Amino acid sequence: MDEEIKKCLEVLRKGGLILYPTDTIWGVGCDATNAAAVKRVYALKQRDDNKALIVLLDSAEHLDHYVVDVPYMARELMDVAVKPLTIIYDGAFNVAPCLLGENDSLGIRVTQEPFTHKLCQLLGRPLVSTSANVSGQPSPASFAQVSDVIKDGVDYVVNYRQDEETQHAASNIIKLSSDGTFKIIR
Questions:
Q1: CA-to-CA distance for 186 and 174, rounded, in angstroms?
Q2: Is the pTM of this model over 0.85?
Q3: Disulfide-capable partner of 30 in 37, 51, 110, 136 (CB 3.0 to 4.6 Å)?
Q4: Among positive and negative, which fits the CA dihedral 169, 171, 36, 1?
Q5: CA pair distance 184, 176, nearest whole angstrom
Q6: How big is the CA angle at 154 (ends 39 and 119), to the nearest 5 degrees?
Q7: What is the pLDDT of residues 134-148, one digit of tens each?
């Protein structure tokens, strides 16, 4: 795993894209602070850039570096979540502007999965994490389901966990406003 993380870091720091296993499904990722790399993700997925992408962080303690006002409820929700949870926050900053949605919103998931956790920790900034599929196609539940278009379109394909047969699902998503109101998206 350490050698794979080292290779990913080399690619990410040069503005490249990776195909990697996450705490949910296989994802396409890049340095979330690199606007050119984020635009490449949109192009690879053939996705409108008005549809936001999410990012991964290694720790909830880093949320304040990317969100103006983290509602107390966010930390409570993360503490009780039994499966991966992506929370959409208003007032995000310090990421590529093309990642932000309405009200400067950004979906962030704190990952506990060992590979992505260590990768985010060593990268030292958020990691884009979007499903490894062309927009409109089904999300891959395993590496075997990732299309060649995606595999050929990234700069590095992680070798870790490719043989897993476990079918994974996308995270739950909640939109949490600074006033404490929320909406369940997925």
A1: 7
A2: yes
A3: 37
A4: negative
A5: 9
A6: 90
A7: 999 999 888 999 999
